[in-house]
């Protein structure tokens, strides 16, 4: 199973090479990978249906209880089949849909990477591994939604989807950490089979809320549902794949997976049924308002996701049966409908149902397929959607608080019937209406049709033979969700009973509503102001608030005053350390110190130089005084037999003095900016720090909490590390990881200094010093300050130096080449060129 | 480029720089048993070139170094990272020291090891970092 995931990633890796040669046919080749995996997973159906659970162990970080172990049970198998099966069709579809698009290559790579991540997610047994795949799906879906990155709308939708799902992902990580702590293991199998009562744990509520936040954001539950319809800015294959069958169901999958251990409590039931019902109703209501085919489908997906959450919340055996059946039915018809909507859009040039009509003569097959899939959506026999809907209604009647929820479900199913009729009838019947000419509209290539055809046939097949679909696919999944073997079966005909009656009523009412749909929609415009105040407004407020807080804290904390930084750091350190020190340890006044004369001299120089550095009125004087402090410290190191430290200190002091000398003449003239009061306050802060350090030293002499590690290091330095210089052995062997980190920090610091010197507007006018302004809100930017390209900066700069006249289109590179002063120099980059350009003038 | 009035410095730098560089390599190699090591040696090497920098200016020093300090940092970090992997190939945790003692003819034993490789990485990073700052500052000054 690990191999299955790996194969998909490898396919993604090899796509670019194949694409160069085969262009859009690469997609047809690549579709073989998920197709083969579908077959491979299908071969496990009998085994899993018999109740077996396949486990393949693979260690990753055993020390942290993180493994790549993968598990195939009923639930994972159903998801794996959907991911690989629909994935095959989507890859085929994308090959034809994006034919000729220059970025198709990138699209296929990301699509396959997404597929691998999704498959990993449903197979992973370890919470941490699951989380990694979870985040990978977020990132790849961001790239897929924002595929048309030239469009601002797509970028916005992609970012919105990413921020909502990743914010939920953070909560999920916290939830997983808590869950792992409670259960004592990160393995889902172990959590599910553990006897410890997790739902009695005092952290249960906090953990559940975190996990639910993650699942709800991913599965577009109210109030986070808004990102899903916006994500329809993505190309149709993405909508068909991510936003119907796979990614949005990841949250549902997670809830279903953890249901046996976390479910059944009051909190679980109340939260899931409430949010599920609200989401269901919101989705149904928003769907009715929409006229865009993809929006209609997206909102009906939101509705379906709400229904699934609701079913998980109810948690009865019947609800589990309904859950698996509804999930399968939804994936089958919704995947097909999205692809078909894409075909209509592609061929007729619009997705707005008010702009379409009478297409059945031009797109007969598409019309037929949409019709059958919509029947399944509306829940009309003999499609599988009907079977699922019957079970849904039945489990509602069975549920604990049926009366209220039942009304909601009925309303939602009436709306869905209307939506289904709109999708099936409006574009294809009535007078011909389309943005494109009639002659140009024709059936799409086979690659685009094969997916919908097979999915629709499966819908029909499963509806006609529900016992087969139930026995093989959905019932093992129900068992996995419930945690025990669920009694019950799937059937097309349940006899004349209440659900059937209600089903009939909803169909009739839905068709009536469809008749008056246009009128109802214009009536519903009254509600627009309320809709505009929906949760999406909250998202924008949140984003504005981030910018606002960033501005505020930059102004307050990062105000550029060195003295403020120092004071804050020192005070926080003194406060925290001092508090711990005084509350936990007893100070012993230990004045019994014997000093040799030369030690006394060294300390005397140190103190005198420190005082001089504070009081001097010359910058050179303070540099010299600080140098004296440093060298005295080095002397003390050497006196107390730490030659390595001493040498390092001396070298650092020397280099510091050199550095200071280099910048000395660039600094403004020495002046006392601070008032006497400020100086007294600063002195007090400094004294506090000094006193604290004194206390610390006194205590470290007295308190010995642990056996010092130095003994071990001294003993083993030569036998183990083959070195007698313990300091160096610590640096490069015992604590080599620390040193590795330190050299990276050092390199980064050097880069920072380099950037500050080189990209300073005064010393290097070529650098993009406008870059920093881009993070500020738009309103504060003058149009003339917005930089669109490097050439523009170049041009602007050359104009400022009168090298070219304003407005002329001379290429700046030519200018540099013609300049005789620059040709004999070793040029590194544009910045140097510009500074050299300036030289002969000054 | 020779700055006026720096004859003694000029003459001294020419002799001191090679000596200092030699000393830095000496410090680097003895570091495991005696005071020294990559960090100190890197600082000494940087000191040598800084002396040169003060005497002859940035362009000449760049010329003498042949390598851009930025590349030195990169190579240093890379070498530091490389020393991580021999242990992994042996199935041991990252950075576990590996030793390959070599007997030279004449009875001298050289202990080649990953800590040595690592120390060389530290040496180059420290050397490159300091030189990057020094040269950048000097160039800003000369302008």
Q: How would you describe what is shown here?
A:
- The complex is a heterodimer of chains A (842) and B (143).
- By secondary structure, chain A is an all-alpha fold.
- Chain A has 37 helices and four strands.
- In chain A, the strands form two sheets. A two-stranded antiparallel sheet of chain A has the order 1-4. In chain A, strands 2-3 form a two-stranded antiparallel ribbon.
- In chain A, strand 2 and strand 3 (66-67) form a beta hairpin.
- The model of chain A is unreliable at 767-781 and 809-842 (pLDDT under 50).
- Chain B is mainly alpha-helical and 143 residues long.
- Chain B is built from six helices and two strands.
- A two-stranded antiparallel ribbon of chain B has the order 1-2.
- In chain B, helix 1 (7-30) packs antiparallel against helix 2 (38-56), helix 2 packs across helix 3 and helix 3 (58-65) packs antiparallel against helix 6.
- Chain B is flat.
- Classes of the chains: A mainly alpha (842), B mainly alpha (143).
- At the A-B interface, helix 29, helix 32 and helix 33 of A face helix 2, helix 4 and helix 6 of B.
Provide the helix percentage of chain B: 55-70%
Biggest sheet features of chain A: 2 strands, antiparallel
Radius of gyration of chain B: 18 Å
What is the strand tally of chain A? 4
Structural class label of chain B: mainly alpha
Number of helices of chain A: 37
Across the major sheet of chain A, the strand order is: 1-4
- Give the DSSP E fraction of chain B (strand runs of 2 or more residues): 5-15%
């Amino acid at each position: 199973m690990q191999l299955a995931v790996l194969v998909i990633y490898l396919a993604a890796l090899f796509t670019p090479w194949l694409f160069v040669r085969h262009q859009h046919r690469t997609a047809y080749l690549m579709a073989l990978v998920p197709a083969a995996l579908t077959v491979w997973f299908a071969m496990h159906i009998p085994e899993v249906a018999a109740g077996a659970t396949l486990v393949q162990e693979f260690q990753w970080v055993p020390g942290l209880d993180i493994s790549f172990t993968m598990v195939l049970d009923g639930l994972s198998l159903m998801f794996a089949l959907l991911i690989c099966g629909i994935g095959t069709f989507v890859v085929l579809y994308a090959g034809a849909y994006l034919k000729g698009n220059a970025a198709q290559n990138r699209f296929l790579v990301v699509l396959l990477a997404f597929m691998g991540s999704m498959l990993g997610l449903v197979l992973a047994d370890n919470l941490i591994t699951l989380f990694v795949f979870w985040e990978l799906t977020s990132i790849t879906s961001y790239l897929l939604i924002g595929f048309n990155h030239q469009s601002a709308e797509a970028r916005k939708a992609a970012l919105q989807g990413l921020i909502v799902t990743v914010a939920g992902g953070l909560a999920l990580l916290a939830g997983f950490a808590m869950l792992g702590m409670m259960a004592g293991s990160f393995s889902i199998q172990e959590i599910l089979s553990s006897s410890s009562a997790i739902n009695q744990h005092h952290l249960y509520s906090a953990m559940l809320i975190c996990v639910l936040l993650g699942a709800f954001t991913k599965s577009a539950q109210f109030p986070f549902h808004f990102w899903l319809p916006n994500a329809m800015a993505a190309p149709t294959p993405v909508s068909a794949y991510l936003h119907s069958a796979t990614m949005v169901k990841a949250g549902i999958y997670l809830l279903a997976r953890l249901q046996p251990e976390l479910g059944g409590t009051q909190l679980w039931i109340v939260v899931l049924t409430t949010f599920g019902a609200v989401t269901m109703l919101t989705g149904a209501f928003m769907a009715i308002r929409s006229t865009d085919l993809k929006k209609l489908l997206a909102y009906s997906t939101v509705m379906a996701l709400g229904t699934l959450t609701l079913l998980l919340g109810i948690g009865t055996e019947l609800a589990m049966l309904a859950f698996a059946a509804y999930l399968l039915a939804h994936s089958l018809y919704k995947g097909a409908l999205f692809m078909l909507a894409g075909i209509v859009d592609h061929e007729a040039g619009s997705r707005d149902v008010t702009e379409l009509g009478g297409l059945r003569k031009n797109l007969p097959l598409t019309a037929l397929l949409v019709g059958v899939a919509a029947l399944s959506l509306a829940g009309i026999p003999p499609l599988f959607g009907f079977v699922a809907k019957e079970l849904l209604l039945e489990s509602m009647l069975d549920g604990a608080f049926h009366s209220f929820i039942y009304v909601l479900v009925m309303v939602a199913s009436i709306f869905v019937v209307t939506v289904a009729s709109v999708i099936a009838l409006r574009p294809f019947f009535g007078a011909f209406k389309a943005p494109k000419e009639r002659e140009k509209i024709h059936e799409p290539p086979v690659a685009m049709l094969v997916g919908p055809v097979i999915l629709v046939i499966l819908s029909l097949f499963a509806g006609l033979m529900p016992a087969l679909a139930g026995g093989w696919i959905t019932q093992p999944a129900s068992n996995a969700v419930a945690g025990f073997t669920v009694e019950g079966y799937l059937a097309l005909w349940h006899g004349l009973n209440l659900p059937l009656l209600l089903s009939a009523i909803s169909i009739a009412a839905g068709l009536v509503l469809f008749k008056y749909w246009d009128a109802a929609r214009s009536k519903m415009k009254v509600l627009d102001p309320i809709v505009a105040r929906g949760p999406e407004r909250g998202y924008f407020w949140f984003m504005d608030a981030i910018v606002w807080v960033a501005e505020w804290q930059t102004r307050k904390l990062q105000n550029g005053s060195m003295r403020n930084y120092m004071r804050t750091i020192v005070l926080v350190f003194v406060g925290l350390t001092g508090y711990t020190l005084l509350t936990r340890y007893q100070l012993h006044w230990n004045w019994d110190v014997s000093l040799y004369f030369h030690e006394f001299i060294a300390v005397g120089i140190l103190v005198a130089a420190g005082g001089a550095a504070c009081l001097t009125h010359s910058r050179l004087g303070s540099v010299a005084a600080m140098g004296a402090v440093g060298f005295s410290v080095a002397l003390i190191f050497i006196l107390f037999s730490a030659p390595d430290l001493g040498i390092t200190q001396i070298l650092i002091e020397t280099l510091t003095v050199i550095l200071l000398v280099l910048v000395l003449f660039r600094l403004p003239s020495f002046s006392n900016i601070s008032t006497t009061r400020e100086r007294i306050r600063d002195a007090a802060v400094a004294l506090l720090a000094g006193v604290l350090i004194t206390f610390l030293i006194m205590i470290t002499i007295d308190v010995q909490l642990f056996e010092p590690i130095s003994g071990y290091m001294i003993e083993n330095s030569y036998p183990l590390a083959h070195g007698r210089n313990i300091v160096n052995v610590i640096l490069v062997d015992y604590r080599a990881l620390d040193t590795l980190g330190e050299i990276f920090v050092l390199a980064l610091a050097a880069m920072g200094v380099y950037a500050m010197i080189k990209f300073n507007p005064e010393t290097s006018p070529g650098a993009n010093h406008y870059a920093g302004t881009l993070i500020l809100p738009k309103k504060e930017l003058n149009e003339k300050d917005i930089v669109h390209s490097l050439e523009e900066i170049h041009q602007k700069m050359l104009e400022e130096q009168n090298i070219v006249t304003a407005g002329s289109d001379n290429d700046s590179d030519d200018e540099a080449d013609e300049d005789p002063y620059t040709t004999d120099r070793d040029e590194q980059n544009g910045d140097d060129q510009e500074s050299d350009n300036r030289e002969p003038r000054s | 480029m020779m700055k006026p009035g720096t004859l003694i410095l000029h003459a001294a730098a020419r002799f001191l720089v090679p000596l200092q560089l030699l000393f830095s390599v000496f410090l680097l190699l003895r570091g495991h048993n005696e005071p020294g090591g990559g960090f100190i040696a890197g600082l000494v090497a940087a000191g040598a070139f800084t002396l040169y920098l003060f005497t002859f200016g940035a362009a000449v020093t760049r010329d003498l170094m042949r390598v851009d300090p930025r590349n030195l940092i990169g190579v240093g970090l890379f070498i530091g990272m490389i020393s991580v992997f021999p242990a992994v190939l042996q199935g041991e945790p990252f950075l576990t020291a590996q030793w390959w003692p070599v007997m030279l003819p004449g009875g001298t034993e050289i202990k080649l090891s990953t800590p040595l490789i690592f120390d060389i990485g530290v040496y180059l990073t420290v050397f490159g970092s300091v030189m990057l700052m020094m040269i950048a500052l000097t160039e800003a000054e000369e302008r």
